[in-house]
Amino acid sequence: MAKMLRRQCAFCPEDEECSIMYIAEGQNLAVHQDCLLYSSGFVESEEHNPENLDIRFDVASVVNELKRGRRLICNFCRKRGATVGCEVKTCRRSYHYFCALCDDAAIETDEVHGIYRVFCPNHDPDRKNNLYDEDSKRERSPITVQSSSAKKKMIVKEKIAEDSLEALRKKQERQKVRVEFLRKCKRAGLLDEIFEEMLDTLHLAQEKLMDDSTPDAVYEETVISLFDCGLFENILASAHSGNLLSLPQAVF
Fold it and tell me: Which of 4, 107, 130, 154 is deepest in the core (most CB within 10 A)?
C-alpha cells in the first residue's frame, strides 16, 4: 500500500512542529503532520514503526479523511474540511487544526501512547467554567503540551490586551486633565466667556447651514465639525427618541 513520505519545510526552523509535512508523490498531495495526527477519523498505519517516522501514513487513509472533512464545517473559519473534532463525543464542534489553535482549543499530546486530542474552549478540562464531564476528566491522560504555534497566538493576544489597557489608561488620563481644566476655568470666572464663544460658533455654523449660497465644501466641513464634537449628535438622538422634533428617519 502506498505511503506518505515525510518532509520538512526548508524555510521553517528544525524544531518547529508545523514544519513537518507528508507528501504523496505523483498525487499532488501534501499535508501537515499535526493536521493528520489530530484528525478525528484518522489513524496511523498499522505498520507504523516509532523508530522510523519517515513513512507512517497510508495515502488511501489520508484521502479518505480528506473526503470525510469535505462534509464538515469549521467552527472558527466556517469553511469545509474541518477534520479535527472536539474530544467530547456529544460536542459537534469541528476545526481545521490551526483554526483550533486560533480558537483557544486545548491540545493534548502523548506521543508515547499515540494520544492526540483536541478540546474546544467549552470543554477544555483545565478551565474552571468548562462543560467537560468529570468522569471523562478522570480517565484522560494528564499530559498536555501546547505547540509553538499556540504559544505564539497566546503571546499575540496578551500583547493586544496590554495595548488595549494602555489605550484605556491614556484615555482616562486625558479625561481627568479636561475635567480639571474646566474646574480651573470655573474658579477663574471664565466659564461664561467660554460658553458665549461656543454659542457664537454655533450661530455661525447655523448661518452657514441655512444659507443656500454656502459652498458645498464649507457646508460639508461645518456638518462634519458639528457631528465630531458629539454634542450635536447627542441632541439630535435625544430629540428624536423623545419625539420633541419631527425628524426624518436616520442613523446618527
Answer: 4
